[in-house]
Amino acid sequence: MVLIYLFGRERWVHDSVQMEKRLQLQELARDLRYKATTDPLTGVSNRLKFDQALAAEMLRSARYKTPLSLVLYDVDRFKTINDTHGHQIGDKVLIEMCRLVVANVRSNDMLARWGGEEFAIMVPNCDGRVAQQAAEKLRAMIEQVVFHTVGQVTCSFGIAQFVEGDTAVGLIARADEALYRAKINGRNCVELAPLPEATEPDLMSVA
User: Fold this and answer.
1) Per-residue DSSP letters for 58-118?
2) Of 9, 82, 94, 143, which shows the fewest CB atoms inside 10 Å?
3) Higher per-residue pLDDT: 64 or 18
4) pLDDT of the residue at 202
5) What number of other Cβ atoms are within 10 A of residue 165's Cβ?
6) Average pLDDT, the chain
7) Is 117 marked active-site?
8) Beta partners for 158?
9) Mean pLDDT of 87-106
10) Of residues 27, 57, 96, 117, which has the active-site annotation?
11) Domains and CATH numbers, the chain
12) Beta strands in 37-189 (DSSP E)
C-alpha cells in the first residue's frame, strides 16, 4: 500500500510539474505574440499586425463585395511638441491620443501605429464617404481635447477606399497622397482620395 501511495504521489507530482511547464510555455507564447504584434509605447497594433490584417480584409472585401476603407492620420507639428516640451511629453500625447481614438472607433475597426506620429485605421464595411465622416468626427474630437502641458493638438487625415483589383501598396499610396493634401491644405483637415480612374462609372453606359 505504501509503495502504491508513493508511486501515485510521485506520478501526481510529475503531472503537476508538467502541467505547470505547459502553462508557462503557453503564457510565454502569448506574451511573445503580443510583443510581436503590439506597439510598445501606445499599446495599439503595430504595422506588422496591421499589414497582415489589411491583406486578409482586402481578400474578404473582394470576395464578398463589401466596402473597405483605409484612414491614415498623423499629429500636426509633432516635432515642435517634442522640441518644445521634450520627447517624454510627446510620448504622453501619443498614448493619450490612442486611448481617445480607440474609445471612439467601432470595435471592428483596427487602429495601428504606422510609424512615429503617424497612425492607420482599417475601416471594414465602410466606403470612402462614410470613412471620411468618421474621420471628421475624430478630427473634431481631438481638436477639442486639451492635452496636459501641451494644450491643443490637431491631426490631419487621409482616406482611401479599397476597390477590386487594388493592392495594399496602391491603397496605402492613395491614402498617403490624401494625407499629404490635408497637410498642404492647412493641416487639421480630412481629405478623401479619388477612386482610380478605372473604377469610375461610365456615364455614357449608365445614361
Assistant:
1) HHHHHHHT--EEEEEEEETTHHHHHHHH-HHHHHHHHHHHHHHHHHTS-TTSEEEEEETTE
2) 9
3) 64
4) 42
5) 10
6) 87
7) yes
8) 72, 191
9) 96
10) 117
11) 47-195 (3.30.70.270)
12) 68-75, 110-115, 118-124, 146-147, 151-152, 155-161
